[in-house]
């Protein structure tokens, strides 16, 4: 991600843009390499790994206890 941001900063010369620059002329200064980037990511695999880590670390129990305690607290204070 940092390489992409660095690439955009180094290949885009914004010093030629002045307050009098026409908006229609700005498209010639925009680097279109960003539009053509392809990413090979396994989104569902990443979600699965995150869920497995969530369960193995015990955070699932904290979530469930928090939901139950929050529901009980809400029912007590809502009357």
Overall mean pLDDT: 76
Strand element count: 0
Low-confidence stretches: none
Seen as an oligomer or otherwise, the chain set is single chain
Helix-and-strand structural type: mainly alpha
Strand content: under 5%
What is the tally of helical segments? 3
What distance lies between the first and last C-alpha atoms, to the nearest angstrom? 51 Å
- The overall number of domains is 2
Q: Can you give the helix content as a percent range? A: 40-55%
In short:
It is built from three helices and no strands.
Please name the defining characteristics of this protein:
single chain; 3 helices; mainly alpha
Which helices and strands appear, and what pairs or packs with what?
Elements: H1 2-11, H2 43-56, H3 59-77
Can you walk through the features of this model?
Helices cover 54% and strands 0% of the residues. The protein is mainly α. The protein has two domains: 2-34, no CATH class; 43-77. The chain is elongated. It starts with a helix and ends with a helix. The mean pLDDT is 76.
């Amino acid at each position: 991600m940092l390489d992409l941001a660095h690439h955009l900063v180094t290949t885009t010369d914004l010093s030629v843009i002045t307050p009098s620059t026409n908006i229609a002329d700005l498209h010639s200064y925009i680097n279109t390499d960003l539009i053509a980037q392809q990413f090979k990511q396994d989104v569902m695999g990443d979600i699965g790994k995150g869920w497995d880590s969530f369960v193995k670390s015990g955070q699932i129990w904290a979530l469930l206890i928090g939901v139950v305690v929050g529901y009980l607290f809400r029912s007590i204070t809502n009357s």
